[in-house]
Design goal:
The chain is of the alpha/beta class. It has 33 helices and 25 strands.
């Protein structure tokens, strides 16, 4: 379930008559618990409550419905309950159907309200559905509630007006919804005079069967597009004549509205009765952008980008500098005036703006700084000099464009109310400007200089419709020319394997004339390249949220060599962190924030998350493409080890069409039914087999053994299968292998070695790479890797956190999985010179890891390394291994992964330089 679905379920529960017996289970069901889970709690099997009448769900909540008037006392009993502590309950909740109280057990935050209003606090409980909330959502559930209601109305209108759902009329429907949102907001904020004039006029004037609701609404829209002095001549109806003239072309053009059903009319009135003063445009825009997109409606309410995450981009990009200038100005009137002029000349440009989150937050933050300037200068009532038209955007989706414009208009009004008062805000708000500053189109195909030129003298195409659907829109004069431009946003990621043909074509247009290796780039790379091109012609700096994969593996050399060639450098970066949405059990995608500029900066700032969760900031002379302080080093493949560690090679490749490899059932059949000697069969291990504990076998014969063994019917048949497969190959080299079909096509071990196996691909969810020690005689299957007869301390290195971080960075990934490479990951891995004592300590660490695994037999590697269920003794063994190895590097534990990589790159540079000079 997503946040919108949960809000709907909780609101429905709050409206129902209170049922003391069913309430705890209905409450849990509203947060996505399955019927089987509820049934187990009802039967008592999973309910370990020690409070009479209590319902306790482990790791979630302890609920009690109590006698009337006993809510506070009951909540205290729940707080002190041993069962609450044992079950690690996140929340406790007590209610008597009149009063409702709850507490977050980790933060101590509480909720206390009348029972019918408990749905207002649904955001408080979202962690019950596996949704990590942020402060804005907990404190203001309005935006989710409004989105849910608008979605119901939208779906009902499309059901009754199927022609409005066609591509030809999609813009009309989206525009209609934008008009509604404006009207709801305007009547609750005093922009429309009177008490709820929009909703009340529809309720009073339209028929209760909804037969003329669309006509009444059309007339209201017509009034708002007609100047007051012209209304009499245009016969505006008396009940619509007092609506203000809005202009801005929001209500221009067709005033046709979709026809309403009684249900749709009811939804409309219900939505209008919400308190739209509470709207938060940066939250609401994110929430609602999926409403009008059928393909995304299942993600309704998920698209929320928190303000703290947006500020990870905007603060180091330019806001920190503005605040520093404000601090330095103090009460100096001249310096404050200079800063205010600078603010008015800044352009913020988001070429993947969606519903306008980044633009809205940037606008609000800049207005806050401007308000402080005006306050210090004694000019608190002064109108803003920061024009909305300085906040430009490009967005592919029609409805998101509508909402982005509307969100900025609402943000401007709210800022005026906050800093100048409602009277002055209303006086200056209407009529709206006609200028259009959000462009609909494909950002990778549009020339950015035409959308956000360095001055107001660029290409000029006239447009008089704020909410038009024209791709080639007007170039609006910037009121103050020659200022700074800051490009920001959260473009679509899309790895190379998930891009459609059109997206591939977009990247080709940008990169094909620069490099032939562009096909492996992530889609977001297009935005970085266009930003770098833009920066060569303007005074600009750019920062985007991106998957961290563009700073890993082979993409580093392909993309960043091109960006650096334009004269740009990485000005700041925020290394990997989770960017979650509001879907239940959403783990989020791992992203980085990367800022680039070709303007001179004395230092660069690198932000990272420490192992204890705190944010670290480091200043550096340079940040390289791996997001590490240091020179622009590229890690290149090596055929031999840079450090004094074991040699790693591929496993053996069968090339057999199933002739030489088979499951254990077939192996036992060969022994028991066909008399095959067991010595001819070996255990065979690939990544899937090793990680998931799947038994598999292979036929393993020397040349001399084959002469004898082929007399066995079963063995002869398996060899024949292999021979035919090789003879039928189109490759000459494979055909040659047919003469030795008794053996693997590529043999890299003699079969008597002890082996450390390293899967070539493994899940990024695991905190450690899944390596292991195999018995002598085990065969590793290519493309997986192995260290043959290597000392056990090598496994301690492979299994370490520091090695996983190196692999993730220099080898990159396949989709989201770690991709291991011996030539790029192992042979390049820098390890300090190890003493015999170091090797003994690491050997003991590897043994402790293996012993800890053995204690949990028959649990598989997949079971043991599930991050949610990793056994404590195994975790301790790995932690000990990390500590021993990290102390070898720097004499202490590293603070975080960025520090680990910084040390590794520094050591890599030293060792490769020494190798070149020797």
């Amino acid at each position: 379930m997503n946040a919108v679905e949960i809000e709907e379920a909780i609101s429905l529960l709050a409206e129902q008559p209170f049922n003391p017996v069913e309430f705890p289970y209905a409450f849990l069901e509203a947060f996505g618990n399955k019927a089987t889970t509820i049934k187990r709690l009802q039967t008592g099997n999973n309910n370990k409550s020690d409070v009479e009448g209590g319902v306790l769900q482990r790791n979630n909540i302890h609920i009690v419905v109590c006698e009337e008037g006993a809510v506070s006392e009951t909540l205290n009993r729940l707080r002190n309950s041993p069962a609450t502590a044992r079950a690690k309950a996140k929340f406790i909740l007590a209610t008597d159907g009149k009063e409702f109280q709850a507490e977050d057990m980790s933060s101590g935050e509480t909720v206390a309200c009348d029972y019918p209003q408990f749905n207002e606090h649904f955001g408080f409980f979202l962690p019950l559905a596996g949704i990590s909330t942020v402060k804005q959502i907990r404190e203001n559930a309005f935006d989710i509630r409004a989105t849910a209601r608008l979605n119901k109305l939208y779906v009902e209108l499309l059901r009754h007006n199927p022609d409005w759902a066609t591509e030809a009329r999609r813009h009309d429907m989206n525009h209609f919804l934008a008009r509604l949102i404006f009207c709801f907001f305007a009547e609750d904020t005093g922009i429309f005079s009177g008490n709820n004039p929009f909703v009340d006029t529809i309720q009073r004037t339209s028929a209760s069967d909804a037969s003329d609701t669309h006509e009444v609404m059309s007339e209201i829209f017509r009034a708002m597009d007609t100047k007051r002095e012209d209304r009499k001549a245009k016969n505006i109806r008396s009940w619509a004549i007092n609506f203000p003239y809005v202009n801005g072309e929001l209500f221009s053009g067709s005033i046709e509205c979709p026809k309403f059903t009684k249900i749709a009319r009811s939804y409309l009135l219900h939505i209008g009765n919400l308190d739209w003063k509470k709207i938060n445009p940066d939250i609401f825009g994110s929430m609602i952008q999926a409403v009008a997109d059928e393909d995304e409606r299942s993600a309704l309410g998920m698209h929320y980008t928190s303000v703290p995450n947006i500020l990870k981009v905007l603060n180091p990009l330019f806001l920190d500098d503005l605040r520093a200038q404000l601090e330095e100005a103090g009460d100096n009137g001249r310096k404050l005036l200079n800063l205010r002029k600078r603010l008015a000349r800044i352009r913020v440009f988001d070429p993947a703006c969606g519903s306008g989150n980044f633009l809205v937050i940037a606008y609000k933050q800049m207005r806050e700084i401007e308000a402080e300037i005006n306050k210090r200068r004694g000019e608190g009532d002064r109108p803003t000099e920061i024009p909305l038209t300085n906040f430009r955007g490009i967005e592919l989706r029609d409805f998101s464009c509508e909402i982005a414009r509307l969100a900025l208009i609402i943000a401007e009004y709210q800022c005026d109310v906050l800093y100048r008062g409602q009277k002055l805000a209303i006086a200056d708000f209407l009529p709206l400007s006609k200028e259009n500053w959000i462009t609909r189109g494909n950002a990778l195909r549009i020339e950015w200089l035409s959308v956000c030129p360095p001055t107001g003298t660029g290409v000029r195409i006239h447009s008089n419709d704020l909410f038009s659907n024209v791709i080639d829109q007007s170039e609006i004069d910037f009121e103050n020319e020659g200022g700074e431009t800051y490009i920001c946003g959260n473009p679509p990621y899309k790895g190379s394997q998930t891009q459609n043909d059109e997206q591939k074509s977009d990247l080709k247009a940008i990169f094909d004339h620069r490099t032939k290796n562009w096909k492996t780039l992530d889609y977001v790379a297009g935005w970085f390249m266009k930003a770098a091109d833009y920066g060569t012609k303007t005074n600009a700096a750019s920062a985007f949220v991106s998957t961290n994969s563009i700073c890993q593996g082979r993409q580093v050399e392909i993309l960043w060599s091109l960006i650096f060639a334009t004269g740009h450098e990485i000005a700041f970066a925020h290394t990997s962190f989770k960017w979650a949405n509001l879907a239940s059990h959403n783990a989020g995608v791992t992203v980085a924030v990367i800022g680039i500029t070709n303007q001179v900066r004395k230092t660069r700032r690198l932000f990272s998350i420490a192992d204890d969760g705190s944010v670290m900031v480091k200043e550096a002379d340079n940040i390289n493409a791996y997001l590490i302080p240091g020179s622009n080093t590229n890690v290149v493949q090596r055929s031999s080890q840079l450090s004094a560690i074991g040699s790693m090679d591929f496993g053996s490749m069968a090339n057999d069409d199933g002739g030489l490899l088979f499951d254990n059932i077939e192996a036992e059949k060969a022994i028991n039914q066909y008399g095959v000697e067991r010595k001819y069969l070996r255990k065979a291990w690939g990544a899937r087999e090793f990680i998931n504990g799947i038994s598999r076998s292979c036929l393993w014969l020397s040349e001399d053994e084959a002469k004898i063994a082929t007399k066995n019917e079963w063995i002869a048949n398996r060899i024949e299968i292999t021979k035919n497969a090789r003879l039928n190959s189109s490759r000459a080299a494979t055909k040659k292998l047919a003469s030795s079909s008794y053996r693997f096509g590529e043999v890299r071990q003699n079969g008597s070695e002890k082996v450390i196996i390293v899967p070539s691909v493994s899940s990024e969810r695991r905190e450690y790479l899944p390596c292991g020690y195999l018995d002598a005689g085990s065969i590793v299957i290519a493309p997986n890797l192995a260290l043959y007869n290597a000392p056990l301390w090598n496994m301690a290195i492979v299994a370490s956190r520091i090695h996983l971080i190196w692999i993730a960075t220099v080898c990159g990934k396949i989709k989201t999985d770690f991709r291991y490479s011996n030539t790029l990951g192992w042979n390049t891995f820098p390890v300090p010179k190890l003493t015999e004592k170091n090797k003994e300590d690491l050997t003991r660490c590897a043994e402790e890891i293996l012993i800890a695994r053995e204690r949990h037999f028959p649990a598989t590697i997949a079971d043991l390394y599930d991050p949610e269920a990793m056994p404590e003794d195994l975790r301790r063994a790995h932690d000990r291994n990390d500590e021993v190895l990290e102390r070898i590097y720097i004499g202490r534990r590293f603070k975080n992964d960025t520090e680990r990589l910084e040390k590794l790159f520094d050591l890599y540079t030293q060792m490769t330089t020494k190798a070149k000079n020797s």
